[in-house]
Amino acid sequence: MSKTGCFEYDVLIIGSGISGLSCALAAEEAGLAVAVISKEENISECNTFYAQGGIVARGVEDSPNLLSKDIMEAGDYLNYRSAVEDLADKGPGLVEELLIKKLGLEFCKNQKGEMDFTMEAAHSCRRILHVKDKTGESIEKVLTSAVKANKGIKIFNSHIAIDLITNTHNSRDSQDRYKATRVLGAYVFDQTRDRVCTFFASQVVLATGGVGDLFLHTSNPACATGDGVAMAARIGAEIINAEYIQFHPTILYHRDVKRFLISESLRGEGAVLKNRFGEAFMKRYQPKLKDLAPRDEVARAIFREIERTKSDYVYLDASAMETDVEIRFPGIFNQCRKVGIDIRREGIPVVPAAHYFCGGVKVNLSGESSIPGLYAVGETACTGVHGGNRLASVSLLEGLYYGHKAALDIAQKIAKPSERLKKSIPPWEFPQNEVEFDPILISQDLTNIRNTMWNYAGIVRKYHRLERAQSDLNYLSHRIEKFYKQAKLTRGIIELRNCLLTATVIVCSAFSNYTSIGAHYIEMPKN
To answer: 72, 162, 284, 507: least surrounded by Cβ within 10 Å?
Structure first.
């Protein structure tokens, strides 16, 4: 079997969530040859699939100005106003045109047959469309079906990108290093055939999702390893706002269930947070908004309450909700019932966990990064929409809108690498004497990274803890990079390398920001 392969497309999209797939559909419609790669065998295995609450649309009493106001307030006004206004103005229309009219997605309706807009924390009105508590799954399914039915889009599942290819980093022609850096494609590991392929493309789109798996506790699936941020950082692309990690307040706390999110929509429909003594405690921390405060405030309040009451978790009490939870939230109801919790009668044990990355690869209003030939969309990108903290259910809208918008911009900038340049790029070079893969080494190093990030760069950060995190990650980097250069190539070693670099980027950003804003909360030492 050949150890290498070579492909060329107009657009190479790395990732298969809402942003990547909406980008693929729009790019193909513009007449481009599109490749989508996913490191999973099932391309629907991504953060989008697990999004429960819903997607922001245009509520009955809503307006672009009101939506912009809510997004800016939740983001502590660190947001990029132009991106927020653009999304608030045009994003909801794309939900209607693409998801509902074109792809036929059926969102839940009320008894009058009208769209059933729901409410979530920090929103001024009901504007969130949902498919009960499986909105992300429903969106991902219709997008995946559309992409698979499209002959102009080639899907490469079980393929994981290793590194981006640029003229300045990879060309064997020494003269190329003096030219402006441009992305030409990517080296991609084909896990099924155990080979590395060279993908050339006019434009590469990073749509690799978030960074949740860098933390000990997360709502994200295991594939959220910060791959896109790491690949972009290695070629010198700008990364901004990396310190802003949103911790979801309510993840199911149970020894037999990991990563199961309890949607914020429950609190939007009336569920109340209580401590182990049965006290509703949010009024102590946020007297005005209480349980509907922004996520960062709720997560910190739970963290403080757990400390104060010497508990491991708090409860989310849905027993007094007017909504029939079994019908409105079937996924949550059934998962809790499987572990012996009847949420109609008893509280759900919950803890905060790493959930959403508000920072990422710095892009303009068309998704283009600081390096020509490289775009980023969705959670990998930082459009500036979220600022210091994400407003609930805006992320799916942002992924859909900016994924679509990036494709339209790409269609105007197709410039394939020249034959000379392609010939100057060598195939992937394997180590002369490969060290056999040892899963225990990978597992232990990942555990070290996750513990470091959770304990030192988590919900409440302290200066001396971040200083220790920098030191510990620096120590790990030498060992892991040496192992990467010697080891037989696997998905595990690629992800470990990406986890380490992205964790380092996050910690360095947090360490250099002494001001608590939004999802970045830091306690400085007293003089």
So the answer is: 284
